[in-house]
Specification:
By secondary structure, this protein is of the alpha/beta class. The chain is 32% helix and 22% strand. It is built from 14 helices and 19 strands. Strands 4-3-5-6-7-8-9-13-12-11-10 form an 11-stranded mixed sheet, sandwiched between helices. It has a 4-stranded mixed sheet with strand order 18-17-16-19, with helices on one face. Helix 10 links the parallel strand 5 and strand 6. The radius of gyration is 23 Å and the shape is globular. It starts with 6 loop residues before the first helix and ends in an 8-residue tail after the last strand.
Length: 461
């Protein structure tokens, strides 16, 4: 039976819309924590019937009743990407889960081995709720604001699951949805910008790589009559240069949203510039190398627990491989959840220094933006940082030909970039800055990575 024909399922949707969306504004942090406790108890009981988790919990001597709330979460074992791969397909869902009414989603597979997870329709609706929340925080309305989403509509993607196969087709049957337009990110950028220009949206949502391509077209005379309120970036790390480059091209602010295929929406940037955790959707642990919670203003590795849905549970999952910095402060925007100062990027993108220490990619990805501000030009169209060896880094630069002969020379810019990268990284690493015609996409993810590290491991000399 189609769940959308089930009145009890429709009541759950109504509850999400009328109560869940506003929880992070209306509930105190203590109330949200109590809600988390109840959700975690339910998720652990559900997970105990999933072979992967049952085996892990049995080996650790854990019973569902041992977990009373978030305070007990450290009793639970970690779940890795390899765990999900090894137990796929039947070992990552409980017996009786109907694959025909659920959805199978996969990660991009940045290591060459994608991870698959199942979700139910309720989970896809909760993911959509996060988008409604973000839009509300930015002064928009999902029923009235004109929105363009440039997303991956291929089978198996999160976007295809949420926007093409679950709740949105149902809503279109009962509500006018002409204010939301989808564009497949596989289309040519010139086609995308024309469709965006014709629709004239209030908001654009897509990933940083698409935004960069669209910004280049804007700089070359496309889309001049756009009247945007904000641009929303998601799906990949938003580096400082891309953010400023896109903001300069479109003339509006870019706001960042953070999530993952496996765990859904996790946090979003408010208008005050702070990242708010969606604490009623997920519990985030930020841990050091000893698996202990880090202090505020200290980077640590993310361990995430999804607090809703059926299909594949995500509890104490280490597979995101991101570094986050928690901060302790109150935000004036009115959202009552913990804050993240920075999302430092995937650990696989970290720069390894000769002494064995790791350097966050955001330490250096902001350099091109600072150089452009220094010279008062945005002639760098794109850049990529490649660590070939532990003591050798190459910075690839693509110059916008339209701006090549305007303002400071390309040589002057490249020299300034080399100087600043060398100062930031240190004299023990050789830095080469080279102009190229094109930066190629990563073959496994089909995106252009800002930082590529070919140093898998390093022992200090």
């Amino acid at each position: 039976m189609d769940p959308f024909l089930n009145p009890f399922f429709l009541l759950r949707i109504a509850k999400i819309y009328y109560f869940d969306i506003n929880r992070i504004w209306k509930s105190s942090w203590n109330e949200i924590r109590k809600y988390q406790d109840k959700c975690l108890q339910k998720m652990v009981k559900y997970a105990y019937n999933v072979p992967l988790y049952h085996d892990k919990y049995k080996k650790a001597g854990i019973q569902p009743d041992d977990i009373k709330g978030i305070k007990d979460i450290e009793k639970l074992p970690f779940i890795t990407k390899n765990d999900l791969r090894e137990y796929y397909p039947n070992g990552i869902i409980p017996k009786g889960f109907d694959k025909k009414t659920g959805f199978l989603m996969s990660t991009s597979g940045s290591t060459g081995k994608p991870v698959f997870v199942y979700c139910d329709k309720f989970s896809s609706i909760k993911r959509l709720t996060a988008n409604v929340r973000e839009l509300k925080a930015y002064g928009g309305n999902w029923r009235k604001s004109k929105i363009v989403l440039v997303i991956d509509l291929e089978s198996g993607s999160v976007e295809n699951t949420v926007f093409s196969m679950s709740v949105m087709p149902f809503l279109k049957q009962i509500l006018p949805m002409e204010n939301i337009k989808y564009i497949h990110m596989g289309e040519k950028p010139e086609v995308m910008i024309k469709k965006i220009n014709d629709f004239n949206p209030d908001f654009i949502g897509t990933d940083p790589n698409i935004l960069r391509e669209l910004a280049h077209l804007i700089n070359n005379g496309y889309g001049k009559d756009l009247n945007l309120k904000y641009i929303i970036s998601s799906g990949a790390m938003l580096d400082n240069y891309t953010k400023k480059y896109v903001e300069n091209a479109f003339g509006v602010r870019v706001l960042d949203v953070y999530g993952s295929t496996e765990a859904g929406s996790l946090a979003f940037e408010c208008l005050e510039g702070n990242y708010h955790v969606l604490s009623d959707f997920a519990h985030l642990e930020i841990l050091d190398d000893q698996q202990k919670s880090v202090e505020f203003n200290t980077p640590g590795k993310l361990v995430v627990t999804k607090l809703y849905g059926k299909g594949t549970p995500i509890i104490r999952y280490t597979g995101n491989e991101d570094f986050l910095i928690p901060i302790k402060k109150l935000c004036s925007c009115g959202i009552n959840t913990p804050l993240i100062k920075k999302i430092e990027g995937r650990s696989t993108d970290m720069i390894v220094l000769p002494d064995g220490k790791l350097m966050s990619p955001l330490t250096v990805t902001g350099i091109p933006a600072k150089v452009m501000d220094y010279f008062g030009t945005y002639k760098i169209k794109q850049f990529q940082i490649i660590q070939h060896k532990v003591d050798e880094i190459e910075v690839l630069i693509v110059i916008d030909d339209k701006l090549r002969n305007i303002g400071p020379s390309v040589e002057k810019i490249l020299n300034e970039l080399k100087k600043r990268f060398s100062e930031k990284i240190g004299s023990s690493v050789k830095v080469f800055v080279n102009e190229v015609d094109e930066i190629k996409k990563d073959e496994t993810t089909n995106i252009i990575k800002v930082v590529v590290s070919k140093v898998k491991e390093h022992q200090p000399k």
